[in-house]
Specification:
The protein has 509 residues and is mainly β. It has one helix at residues 109-113, and strands at residues 48-50, 58-62, 67-68, 72-80, 88-98, 118-121, 129-130, 135-137, 140-146, 152-153, 157-166, 179-185, 196-201, 207-208, 213-219, 231-237, 239-246, 252-258, 262-264, 272-280, 288-295, 348-350, 355-357, 361-363, 368-370, 374-376, 380-382, 408-410, 423-425, 431-432, 448-453, 459-465, 469-476, 480-483, 489-494, 498-503.
Length: 509
C-alpha cells in the first residue's frame, strides 16, 4: 500500500469579492514555498516536503499545517517504494532536528529528549520500532528506527512519527535543518559496513509566529457552472493573503486580498488551479505559507496534450483539427442524427484501410481516396470525374444511363485505349423491343449489343456465325453485355421479355 496523509477538514468563513489583476512576484530570496512552475500546475502543498536525495525510496515529511512558535506539533515521515526502481531492504532510519532556543532551532534540547517517537507499517514481519534513547550533540537531537527483521521494501509503506514536539518560542529567519538518513541494502544478509547511506534535508521548513494561522482553502461549489464565477474560502489569522492563478492563455494573475477570507473567481470556462499565499504580519520576518486548490467546471473547455479514450466519444458540435495536423483512427463511424451527410472540406485519404458507408457518399470539389476497399451500400454521386488508376478496371452488373434520358458517355482514355473512339449508349427509343422468339436477327451496323430481360421468366439467346450456324447460347436473367462481329446473328429462346440495345464504336447509331 501507499501511505498518504489525512487531509485537514475546513470550516466556512465570511468575506467579500475581489477583482483579479496582474501583479508582480515577490523579490527573489524571500522564504516562500513554490512558485507556479507552469500553466495550472502547482508545486507540492506547503505541509509536504519530498527528500529527493534519498534515491532508493520515496520519502516525505508531512507537517501539521504551519509550525507555530510555542506550540506542540507532530512531525510525520512517510516512506514508500519508488515504482520502476529495484526494491531494497530498508535497514535503519535516523531523523535529526536542530535544538536550542534560537530562531533556527526547532525545539529546546530538554523538550526534544522528551519526545516519544513511534513507527507504523513497514511490512509483515518487519516489526519496525524506535530504537531509543535519542542521541544528542552538535546542536542536534536524533532518533533511530529499525526493523526486527530485514524485509524487502515493496508493496507497503512506513510511517515514523515524532509526536507533540514542543516548538520553541522564536519564529524563523531562515529554513530549519531537519535531516533524514536512510540505510539500505540489496540483500537481507548484507552486514552494516556494506549498507548504502543517503541523507537529505527537508527544504523550506519554517517556524511561523505564534498567532499566525492559514488553513482550509477550498472551492465552495462542487462544480462551477460553465462561464460563471466560483467562490474560494479559507481560514486565516494574523495573515495577509494573495490569490494566484493562471489564465487559460498561461498568464499569471495575482490579487492581494489582505485579511479577507473569501474571494470570487473570474468567470471560469475550464478547470483552474488556485494558490493562496498567506504572509505573516507579526514579528520582524514576513514568512509565506501557501495552499492550493482546483475549481472544477461543468462541461469545461479542454486543452490537452494527449487524450486517450477507451470508450465511446460523442461530439455534439464541430470537431476541428488544427492546420497541418492529422487525425489518425483505426475505425470511424458517423451517425448523422438526421443530417444527410458528413462533410470534409479537404481531401480524405485512408491508408490501407477499408471505408464502409451504409448511406450515400458524395464528393464536391475534393478528393476521396482509399488505398483499401471502398464499399457504398447507398447511392454514390460524383460531381467530378471518376478515375481508375493504372490497369485497374470497373466491374458492374448493370450499366445504365442518366435517369433524365440523356446518354451515357464513355470518353476514351487519353493515355491509350483499345477503343477506337467515343462510345455512346443510345437512349430507350433505339432498341428492338421485343426480340422475337426463334427468329434470327442481325445487328444494325453495330459492334456492341446489350440485352436486358425485364420479365420474371428466364430466357436465352443463340449467337450464330454467318450462315446461321449456332456458335453458343447464353442465358439472360437480368442483363448481358457482349460484342457481336459484323454478319453474326442472334435469336431469342424462351418466353422472357427480352430487349436489345445497339452500340456503335466511334459514333451513335
Amino acid at each position: 500500500m501507499t501511505v498518504t496523509p489525512e487531509p485537514a477538514q475546513p470550516t466556512p468563513g465570511p468575506g467579500i469579492p475581489h477583482t483579479p489583476v496582474p501583479g508582480t512576484k515577490p523579490e527573489p530570496g524571500t522564504p516562500e514555498s513554490g512558485r507556479l512552475p507552469g500553466p495550472g500546475i502547482f508545486s507540492e502543498p506547503d505541509n509536504r516536503r519530498t527528500l529527493h536525495a534519498i534515491t532508493a525510496l520515496d520519502v516525505k515529511l508531512i507537517l501539521p499545517q504551519q509550525l507555530n512558535a510555542a506550540t506542540d506539533r507532530d512531525l510525520k515521515f512517510y516512506f514508500n517504494e519508488i515504482p520502476g526502481k529495484p526494491a531494497v531492504f530498508l535497514r535503519k532510519v535516523r531523523i535529526e532536528i536542530p535544538v536550542g532556543e534560537g530562531e533556527q532551532d526547532l525545539a529546546t534540547e530538554p523538550n526534544a529528549r522528551n519526545v516519544h517517537p513511534s513507527a507504523a507499517g513497514g511490512g509483515s514481519g518487519g516489526g519496525w520500532a524506535y530504537a531509543g534513547p535519542p542521541g544528542a550533540g552538535g546542536g542536534k537531537v536524533w532518533y533511530d528506527f529499525g526493523p526486527n527483521n530485514p524485509v524487502q521494501f515493496t508493496g507497503f509503506g512506513l510511517v515514523l512519527t515524532l509526536p507533540a514536539v514542543r516548538i520553541n518560542t522564536k519564529a524563523s529567519t531562515g529554513p530549519l535543518d531537519i535531516r533524514v538518513t536512510a540505510y539500505t541494502s540489496s540483500a537481507a544478509d548484507t552486514p552494516e559496513p556494506g549498507w548504502t547511506v543517503s541523507t537529505d534535508t527537508a527544504s523550506g521548513v519554517y517556524k511561523f509566529p505564534t498567532g499566525f494561522e492559514f488553513s482550509g482553502l477550498r472551492v465552495e461549489e462542487v462544480m462551477v457552472p460553465y462561464n460563471t464565477s466560483g467562490t474560494l474560502r479559507w481560514e486565516s489569522q494574523a495573515a495577509n493573503c494573495t490569490v494566484v492563478y493562471k489564465t487559460k492563455d498561461g498568464d499569471e494573475m495575482r490579487c492581494d486580498v489582505g485579511a479577507e477570507k473569501e474571494w470570487f473567481t473570474p468567470h471560469l470556462t475550464t478547470y483552474t488551479n488556485f494558490r493562496v499565499e498567506a504572509r505573516s504580519v507579526e514579528g520582524q520576518n514576513s514568512l509565506v505559507y501557501a495552499l492550493n486548490t482546483t475549481a472544477l467546471v461543468d462541461t469545461p473547455d479542454l486543452n490537452l496534450h494527449t487524450l486517450n479514450v477507451g470508450g465511446t466519444t460523442t461530439f455534439s458540435n464541430t470537431v476541428t483539427i488544427a492546420t497541418g495536423q492529422a487525425l489518425s483512427v483505426d475505425t470511424i463511424k458517423v451517425s448523422p442524427n438526421g443530417r444527410p451527410n458528413i462533410a470534409f472540406f479537404d481531401d480524405v485519404w485512408l491508408d490501407e484501410k477499408d471505408l464502409y458507408v451504409k448511406g450515400n457518399i458524395e464528393t464536391r470539389m475534393t478528393n476521396a481516396g482509399a488505398k483499401g476497399l471502398l464499399k457504398v451500400a447507398g447511392n454514390t454521386t460524383l460531381n467530378g470525374h471518376l478515375t481508375v488508376a493504372g490497369d485497374h478496371s470497373i466491374r458492374t452488373r448493370h450499366l445504365r444511363g442518366p435517369v433524365d434520358g440523356r446518354t451515357l458517355i464513355i470518353d476514351e482514355d487519353k493515355t491509350g485505349t483499345e477503343l477506337p473512339g467515343p462510345v455512346k449508349l443510345l437512349s430507350a427509343v433505339n432498341y428492338q423491343n421485343p426480340v422475337l422468339k426463334d427468329r434470327w436477327s442481325e445487328p444494325k451496323d453495330s459492334d456492341f449489343l446489350y440485352f436486358g430481360n425485364s420479365g420474371a421468366v428466364e430466357c436465352s439467346i443463340d449467337i450464330a456465325v454467318p450462315g446461321g450456324i449456332p456458335a453458343y447460347t447464353v442465358q439472360v436473367d437480368g442483363g448481358f453485355c457482349f460484342v457481336v462481329p459484323a454478319g453474326w446473328q442472334y435469336r431469342k429462346r424462351g418466353e422472357g421479355n427480352l430487349k436489345v440495345f445497339f452500340v456503335k464504336f466511334g459514333r451513335s447509331l
